[in-house]
Write a structure and sequence with these properties.
Elements lengths: L4 E2 L8 E2 L1 H11 L13 H10 L1 E2 L15 E5 L6 H15 L3 E6 L2 H16 L2 H4 L11 E2 L6 E6 L2 H4 L4 E7 L8 H9 L6 E6 L7 H14 L8 E5 L11 H7 L1 H4 L5 H8 L4 H7 L15 H6 L9 E9 L5 E10 L2 E11 L3 H14 L1 E8 L4 H9 L4 E4 L1 H16 L3 E3 L3 H9 L2 E4 L2 E4 L9 H15 L9
Parallel strand pairs: 4-9, 4-10, 5-7, 5-8, 8-9, 11-14, 13-16, 14-15
Antiparallel strand pairs: 1-10, 2-3, 6-7, 11-12, 12-13, 17-18
Helix pairs in contact: 1-2, 1-3, 3-4, 14-15, 16-18
């Protein structure tokens, strides 16, 4: 369960502060789901020992100091990274003098590790009497005034020049350029300080992480300029099949040790796009915006007769990037299958014409909901709402959910379409782009118009989540 690539310790019996953290967690680390302290995996214990390795007392330059001042930890998703980050935060707060910070792309993400530590302190009498009353937002302070723990968004201004003893940067593949430099500068004058990134792999936009991976390669190779850079990277071999069990275990120590059943993982990834599996399960970098949204075989396997009835349909509406075309798609549930087909395609559409056709369809058929991307044509949405139509505006976060949900519906064999030539063509043109942790079908990056495909995705998604009677969203 050793990392695929890592900086080796100074010796087989290296000195470390990891053992005291392991003991502390065995006594105190409880979660909201369990009142009993957790049992750490062996790989987690080994990682704590390696991250907190110390130089020996007789070292000529750094006697008794923590060996690593910068640390990169990278592994697949769902390996307990919040436990790792929380444990390292708790160790610094309990045994060291100085401030500690959790940093992520948003304050909400940074608060995940912070909240874990707060829960542990609040539920342990020995720890609780050593810290001031903890709060959700203002930090956890030591009673003796020697340190404070805060959660911060990943902005240079939030940490610039602040003397932290430990900075924990979560999901570093989303970190903006400059945040790592700002954090390391803040710790440069503090003895035994560490900046630690815990992350999964990224894409071509993950500039900070790409630079740290380059530094990791040099450190692992023994570059003396990076003597105090520690790297611990679990990843699958290049070009490994996405369902290769050994490759999955190489990137996921929690699976390799048996805590997460491999059968469950194989079942889960069967409905996920290859680019998502490679990034989050195999922990491999991806191109980001060059991946086809849906394999052609899954689309072909969904070929059928389309709609068998127009009762209880959901309409999806979308337009091309330059509004040269617009498409209306319909979807409905028939047992465990979702039927879909295109019902209208317009050239040089106007708001009046779109509204006219949508209203006509609504009057002639039992329309459950009308799904429209809220990022465009607000005037049309307001107009249809004013006429009492059951509009379902898809907000930015729901757009990504819709794309990922409909992908899974195709992968599970729960969609049937009538092989409309326009839909067939656009399915082959569509590619994805990541937005934070999620992905969507990108109009800008696709190799042509994808309005028919997006209208179909909107209709299928809302048909899968709406209630069986009309739902009006105002």
């Amino acid at each position: 369960m050793l990392p695929t690539r890592f900086t080796p310790p100074l010796s087989d019996d290296f000195e470390t502060d990891g053992d005291r953290l392991i003991e502390l967690m065995s006594l105190a680390w409880v979660t909201p789901e369990s009142e009993s302290p957790i049992e750490l995996d062996e790989w987690q214990k080994d990682l704590f020992r390696r991250v907190l390795e110390r130089y020996p007392a007789d070292h000529p330059k750094y006697p008794n100091e923590l060996r690593w001042r910068q640390v990169l930890i990278s592994c697949g998703r769902q390996n307990g990274k919040s436990v790792l980050g929380g444990g390292l935060a708790l160790e610094a707060m309990t045994f060291r003098r100085g401030d500690v910070a959790s940093i992520a792309s948003s304050r909400e993400q940074a608060t995940i590790i912070y909240s874990r530590v707060k829960h542990v302190i609040d539920n342990n009498a020995w720890l609780k009497k050593r810290f001031k009353r903890t709060t959700e937002t203002r930090g956890i302070g030591k009673i003796d005034g020697t340190g404070k723990y805060t959660a911060n968004p990943a902005k240079e201004a939030a940490i610039q020049g602040l003397p932290f003893v430990r900075v924990l940067l979560d999901e570093g593949h989303l970190a903006k350029k400059g945040i790592w430099t700002a954090a390391t500068k803040g710790t440069s004058a503090v003895d035994n300080a560490q900046v630690i990134m815990i992350t999964t792999a990224g894409d071509q936009n993950s500039e900070t992480l790409i630079e740290l991976y380059k530094a990791a390669e040099r450190a692992i190779a023994g570059d003396p300029m990076l003597e105090r850079f520690g790297a611990f990277i679990w990843e699958a071999p290049e070009n490994a099949p996405v369902d290769d069990v050994n490759a999955i275990m190489a990137a996921n120590p929690s699976i390799a040790c048996g805590r997460i059943p491999i059968e469950r993982v194989l079942s889960d990834i069967a409905t996920q796009p290859e680019h998502e599996v490679r990034r989050y399960t195999l922990n491999q970098f991806i191109a980001g915006s060059s991946e086809a949204w849906l394999p052609g075989n899954l689309f072909r396997e969904a070929s059928g007769n389309g709609l068998t009835a127009m009762d209880g349909i959901v309409l999806g509406i979308d337009s091309a990037r330059n509004f040269s075309h617009a498409t209306i798609s319909a979807a409905r549930r028939n047992g465990e299958i979702y039927e879909t087909e295109l019902v209208a395609s317009l050239v040089q559409p106007t708001e009046d014409k779109l509204a006219e056709i949508i209203l006509d369809l609504y009057k002639r058929h039992n329309v459950q909901a009308i799904a429209i991307d809220d990022r465009w044509n607000h005037a049309l949405i307001r107009r249809l709402k004013a006429q009492g139509l059951p509009i379902w505006p898809l907000w930015s976060k729901e757009i990504t959910t819709a794309c990922m949900t409909v992908y899974a519906m195709f992968a599970n064999g729960r969609v049937t379409h009538n092989e409309d030539p326009l839909l067939v063509m656009q399915n082959g043109l569509a590619v994805t782009r990541y937005h934070g942790e999620s992905w969507l079908v990108s109009r800008a990056d696709s190799m042509g118009d994808v309005d028919a495909l997006l209208a179909t995705i909107w209709a299928l998604y809302v048909a899968s989540v709406s209630k069986p009677i009309g739902v009006q969203v105002f």
